[in-house]
Amino acid sequence: MRRGLTTFNIVSLVIGFGFLYLPIILLVIYSFNASRLVTVWGGFSTKWYASLLRNEQLLDAIWVTFRVGLISATIATVLGTFAAVALVRAGRFKGRTLFSGMIFAPLVMPEVILGLSLLLLFVSLGMPRGFWTVTVSHATVTMCYAAVVIQARLAAFDRQLEEAAQDLGCPPIKAFFAVTLPNIAPAVAAAWMLAFTLSLDDLVIASFTSGPGATTLPMRIYSQVRLGVSPEINAVSTLLIGLVATGVIAAYLLQMRRRSEA
Q1: Does the residue 39 lie in any domain?
Q2: What CATH number should be reported for the domain holding residue 73?
Q3: Which residues contact 38 (CB under 8 A, 6 or more apart)?
Q4: What is the pLDDT of residue 3?
Q5: How many CA within 13 A on the CB side of residue 258?
Q6: In angstroms, rounded to a whole number, what is the distance separating the alpha carbons of residues 218 and 48?
Q7: Which pTM was predicted?
Q8: Residue 257 CA, distance from chain mean position
Q9: Which one, 27, 41, 148, 216, has least CB within 10 Å?
């Protein structure tokens, strides 16, 4: 047996991956369960996916969740890119320590504290809680994750390429968009995907900042699970797993294609 592939390592990997993915596999399998009892197998059926299409509450929650995710991830990626540029390119400016601390604070701060803080902010500003408060909250929280991903790629970028474009007469802003941004595009795409996934997954912050007509899918699932798990919840969870997996695979293939072309 090759070095590193000991029996202990193989068993550890099997146990670890089983612990992580076995519950997801079971959820996908039972989404095709014909029985209403989610723990009793009653045969193969896709009726719960058809029933999901008639569940207006879940469909509204899915639509709200995707709109919040798309808008908040885009805002977070743009602001995270600007923050990463400031941290990498601006040098030792006054207030850098405070600025970087404010950017990275949400990474370690409990979501309950963030949700309560944002709630108090919206109440003090007199903003009615709804779709836009949830969107702004998600963009605020996920921006730091986007900044970390883009900062790591931007720090490794060879700035001489951008300087060469400026020597040829390209303005600094145009040089950034024409040279730097295409080279860090995989990191920007990864940051957007991460922000979008975190927005889809959030429950705590949305619970604090949402209002009438802005119930997200995690909130809807949580409220229904307290009354008992229905097969429709397994179906919608399976669709979300498929969507996220497709996005991750597409991002990986795009990154590998860029590497092969470089």
Answers
A1: no
A2: 1.10.3720.10
A3: 30, 229, 230, 231, 234
A4: 56
A5: 12
A6: 19
A7: 0.83
A8: 23
A9: 41
